[in-house]
Amino acid sequence: MTINRKGIILAGGNGTRLSPLTKAVSKQLLPIYDKPMIFYPLCTLMQGDIREILIICKPEDKSSFKKILGDGSNFGLNIKYALQKYPGGLAEAFLIGEKFISDQPVTLILGDNLFHGSSLSKQMKIITKQKTGGTIFAYQVKDPERYGVVEFDNNENALEIIEKPSNPKSNYAITGLYFYDGSVVKKAKSLKPSKRGELEITDLNMLYLKEKSLKVEIFDKGVAWLDTGKYDSLYEASGYIYALQERQGLKISCPEEIAWNKGWISGEKFYEIAKNYGDNEYGEYLMDLYRKI
């Protein structure tokens, strides 16, 4: 039986940590070197063969996202949009996307998180086939107090997840990539707002953990995770992408290329897209790929 896993990109929020850059434009539309930030989480979902995707954004940003992503057909996807008028916590995404999820397994990725690594696609494909429970990823960081932090026992089994602890019990932060089964909406509805007035993703993860149905995987050293929500991390991410692309001559998180390689769009469609980009480096890259058919 084929699992129809849905994908959600949470691209709302006010982006206050990046103000004044975000006063007139959504954080997720800012550039990470040569592509809008939203391309990177989108491509992460695509690597896991997730083709039905919901973009959750602020009402004033919807038209801008649609200009860039459209209905997803250029990428072999089916993209829909939903609105988050006010930041209500990450777990609110499942209430907003209830009809879209329709009791199916779903993957949530934060719109300002960048993942890259040789093993990422393989891990994504394995986890997207899971029917029950939840899976989240932990990553070793030097400043765990900024994140939700997971405490492990001696066998690397998760014991507890604490949101932004003052005294972290480990250096493993929970990343912005979450896999859940169809019960996630019901669980999200049972949550109570935190002191911040938000539905916390940590509380949702703890529900799964108490049920003993949550897996916490540790990303290996070959996977890079960048949270691009601050000035320095935004700059760091652009430098990271620039350095790799210059060295390899390949683009990272190019949705048209991924769609073509997966057979989701035809060669004719790919040529049309490349041509429409016009005379620029991105369009030339796509056209060079087409010529190699």
Structure description:
This protein is α/β, with parallel strands linked by helices and 293 residues long. The protein has 2 domains: 6-249, Spore Coat Polysaccharide Biosynthesis Protein SpsA, Chain A; 263-293, no CATH class. Helices cover 33% and strands 24% of the residues. It has 11 helices and 13 strands. It has helices at residues 39-47, 62-69, 92-96, 98-101, 120-127, 184-189, 201-210, 231-248, 255-261, 267-276, 281-291, and strands at residues 6-11, 31-32, 35-36, 52-57, 78-83, 106-110, 113-117, 134-140, 148-152, 158-163, 172-180, 214-218, 223-227. It has a 7-stranded mixed β-sheet. Helix 2 (62-69) links the parallel strand 4 and strand 5. Helix 10 packs antiparallel against helix 11 (281-291). The chain is globular. The model has no long low-confidence stretch (mean pLDDT 93).
N/C terminus separation: 34 Å
Strand content: 15-25%
Number of domains: 2
Structural class: alpha/beta
Second CATH tier, the architecture of the largest domain = Alpha-Beta Complex
- Give the integer mean of the pLDDT values: 93
Number of discrete helical segments: 11
Secondary structure: elements and pairs:
Elements: E1 6-11, E2 31-32, E3 35-36, H1 39-47, E4 52-57, H2 62-69, E5 78-83, H3 92-96, H4 98-101, E6 106-110, E7 113-117, H5 120-127, E8 134-140, E9 148-152, E10 158-163, E11 172-180, H6 184-189, H7 201-210, E12 214-218, E13 223-227, H8 231-248, H9 255-261, H10 267-276, H11 281-291
Parallel strand pairs: 1-4, 1-6, 4-5, 8-12
Antiparallel strand pairs: 2-3, 6-11, 7-13, 8-11, 9-10
Helix pairs in contact: 10-11
